[in-house]
Amino acid sequence: MEQITVKSIVQSPVAQVWELWTKPEHITKWNFASEDWHCPSAENDLKVGGKLKSRMEAKDGSFGFDFEATYNQIVDYKKIVYTIADSRKVTTDFRDLDGSTEVITIFDAETTNPIEMQREGWQAILDNFKTYTETR
């Protein structure tokens, strides 16, 4: 299975990045790929065996989907590993860069959509996260 990597350097300390990445009240503010989408709900039980759940929808109501994953590994402020409901693995590393944080996500590609489309979608969500975090 092919893996895809997306990354960004967020101009915020790792503790703040971790909080905004993991708390449901923040996830709903950045977890979408474009301005015509939104994330109306999110739940996060951040522990091994816990679940991450979110809903993504087009703002016009034309399309939406549920995302669900189960945590495999949590290393506070450093790493999150989970398995999506379709059995694909996702690893996100948080690297402390003295006041800023590099966020790197590596995920198993799915077979329905082109690789570049998947990369662009996940990168857009990460870019939204960066903007949300840096403009708070």
TrEMBL record:
Lineage top rank: taxon: Bacteria
Stretches assigned to the Activator of Hsp90 ATPase homologue 1/2-like C-terminal domain: 12-133
SUPFAM superfamilies given in the database record: Bet v1-like
CDD domains, A to Z: SRPBCC_CalC_Aha1-like_4
Family: Belongs to the AHA1 family.
UniProt-recorded name of the protein: Activator of HSP90 ATPase
Species of the source: Sinomicrobium pectinilyticum
